[in-house]
């Protein structure tokens, strides 16, 4: 399974960005997809996840500002980020979970940098 992220970049405080992540090589076996972020020296943090049936989970630090959505036909997940803050600056990683014979397999993208300037 290959995950390709796009949409990161530089934005001013209060601005918006939309991240995309397309999964290939998995057909219809991907269950959950989502986004995590990790700042230098810190643990990887949940941003948001979404299952194939649309159930979402959003991290407390981004609730009300970030929205996750998904196009199952394209195996693509989106993260709409609004009201961005300097503390949102870090690398964002796409994640996909594939369930095969009762076992979950995790896949990660290479990451995309988001920088919020004040």
Notes on the protein architecture:
By secondary structure, the protein is an all-beta fold. It is 0% helix and 59% strand. Strands 2, 4, 5, 6, 9, 10 and 11 form a seven-stranded mixed beta sheet that branches. The chain has a four-stranded antiparallel beta sheet with strand order 1-3-8-7, with no helix packed on it. It is elongated and about 45 Å long.
DSSP strand tally: 11
Helix content: under 10%
- C-alpha Rg, in Å? 14 Å
Number of helical segments with 4 or more residues = 0
**Poorly predicted parts:** none
| Shape estimate | elongated
Give the topology string: H per helix, E per strand: EEEEEEEEEEE
User: Hey, roughly how much beta strand do the residues contain?
Assistant: over 45%
Main beta-sheet annotation: 7 strands, mixed
Quickly give the structural class.
mainly beta
- Gap between N and C termini, in Å? 37 Å
Mean pLDDT, nearest integer?
A: 95
